[in-house]
Amino acid sequence: MTAATHSTLFPQVPETPDAVLDGLDPEQREVALALHGPVCVLAGAGTGKTRAITHRIAYGVRAGILQPASILAVTFTNRAAGEMRGRLRQLGATGVQARTFHSAALRQLQYFWPKAVGGELPRLLERKVQLVAEAAARCELRLDRNELRDVTSEIEWAKVTQTVPADYPAAVAKTRRDAPRDPAVLSQIYSTYEQLKRDRSVIDFEDVLLLTVGILQDRHDIADHVRGQYQHFVVDEYQDVSPLQQRLLDLWVGDRDDLCVVGDASQTIYSFTGATPDHLLNFRTRHPGATVVKLVRDYRSTPQVVHLANGLLSQARGKAADHRLELVSQRDKGPEPVYAEYPDEPHEAEATARRIRDLIAAGVPAGEIAVLYRVNSQSEVYEQALADAGVAYQLRGAERFFERAEVREAGTALRGAARAGRNDSLLDGAEGLPSQVRAVLSTKGWTTRPPAGSGAVRDRWESLAALVRLAEDFEAAKPGATLTDLVRELDERAAAQHAPTVQGVTLASLHSAKGLEWDAVFLVGLNEGMMPIAYARTDEQVEEERRLLYVGVTRARLHLSLSWSLARSPGGRASRRPSRFLNGLRPGSTALGARGGAGGGGGIDRGTGRAPAAAERTEAVEPTPRRPVRCRVCGRTLTDAGEMKLMRCEECPSDMDEALYGRLLDWRAGQAARLSQPDYCVFTEKTLMAIAEAVPSTEGELVVIAGVGNRKLTRFGADVLAICAGETVGEGSDEGGGER
């Protein structure tokens, strides 16, 4: 291992505040120096957003501008919060609170509950599934395991969107959400679940946020207390906040503006949980004077991977796509992405395992390789293939490293050996820290050679081997370090959840891979029906699936493989097709039609302090039209793609014929079904809205509406004009399918 690697694992604390800024690129440095006022960081994948915001906090603390105890940094996972705490510790910024939304709210709730409500806080329900099952049973319904999971998720969605049981059916209709059961039935289960919680004096994780919001809203003295403690807020992954989390954040911040948010609309992949990128996309509207910094220098991936990622988003549609960032790789050239087609899933898995084995033989560490799939049920065939190939693997989503039984046992043994020192016979003849650690852990199952095969024994060995490697790295970075020093380092890492790397190929779903990266990534099962998933029906759902694939692509640093199979089982009918998202990217395919320019490069916009005009309401540089398009209501120049289709600002009054719009939607659904294409391949919803507002009566009036054009005029113009005239339209003829 090189000295550079050692310095990365155990970096020296910067000696001065200015040294904290060393190594930052111009945009990252701008983030670090923007210590006051609203700040919005639009950070593409691999552009160093965590580095930028942790250096911002550390610089403010080390320079004496920010007090550590006055800063609250929130993110969405314990792993991300732990990584943030670990980095701040390495930068010499201790005492900063870096937590998830839930843990920060729970801490406040536990502290203020006796004063606000009285008595002890109700017990926190760790898993709500059992109680949901009981609620369903009381409604005379028996749900299987999958139905129970779906209903539980639906209740969670309702709560984070602040929807009460009585309003749930209307909320489903308004959002066009696919409910797993009849909304009225789900409303009844939801109501019964809430009653059961009250009867048993328990709360769930969503209640933690709801109750904290309630206390801060009702008790101004408590809200003032919280705002007196925290004056500076940093929110990571801001594209994933739910309406409930945003409400809590608003109450924390109050009428101040020391708020820094970081996010990327192109990585919004959790809308099914209530997350929405609207808060990120509308940040400049809410905070007209905000400094907006765009990070587009990609330090993670090669130009070949970045080119594929940019190409994937170039065909995207919708508001998030309008604000996408075009990444610019900062790395040397690498191998081209590999596209592979296989006759069936077992062949795909076996070939993937062989290629992984070859990469490991070529020097790529197993821990730097990942196999990513759309749903967890796809993992089994890859587990078997890797085991047959003799390749160790780990399933993402298992318990945290420092909570594993073998790691806790190892920590206890190392702590005892450190206290005993040379009086411990285990250490006889063990010279140097790594040798001492190997000697101690040999009593817990560590051996010089890994056990054969996979399973629990191999998992235990991998955990202990990770501790041995950590000791080797620690001693190389800090010559002369003792066992006591290592135990202290382990305690600090455990407190920050800063785990060492376990050496094994990672198997993970695309959702759980968010925020991670590997040298080599295999994206498997990229078939229609799986990517996008079959139940993604609306334009918005399909676009979220595209973003999910984008997240998968941008996990790769160097090697990237994309594969699909023509049948599920050997001998099955080869009826499957590769994902539509690969059209125009994989060799021999044609794109559906790429958009114009991308959302823009990096840079800094310090804000004007005035409310932006409709044409300016964007945090990224919009595609530049060939000639100005003006709002037909107020006359302002439009740059937002959606507004350009409507020919008006979003907030300008609409004169849309609602009945006509409904008929157009029904007609589009029929056309899409007939052509076996997604709805948006006929016309996007924005285009249909524009048609319903303009109500064209001639081909000339129809063709000038953005999103129509000569080709669609020829194919669909007669139908659309007939519908606008109030006529009934038949199914018509099939002229060869939708756009390809």
Q: Any low-confidence stretches, pLDDT <50, length ≥5?
A: 1-7, 594-598, 610-628, 732-740
- Which structural class matches the secondary elements? alpha/beta
Strand order of the largest sheet: 3-2-6-7-1-8-17
Beta-strand fraction estimate: 5-15%
Mean pLDDT: 83
Measured as a percent range, the helix fraction is: 40-55%
Report the end-to-end length measured between terminal Cα atoms: 50 Å
Please give a structural write-up.
This protein has 740 residues and is of the alpha/beta class. It is built from 29 helices and 19 strands. A seven-stranded mixed beta sheet has the order 3-2-6-7-1-8-17, sandwiched between helices. α13 (243-253) links the parallel β6 and β7 (259-263). The longest helix has 22 residues, at 456-477. The radius of gyration is 28 Å and the shape is globular. The protein starts with a helix and ends in a 16-residue tail after the last helix. The model is unreliable at 1-7, 594-598, 610-628 and 732-740 (pLDDT under 50).
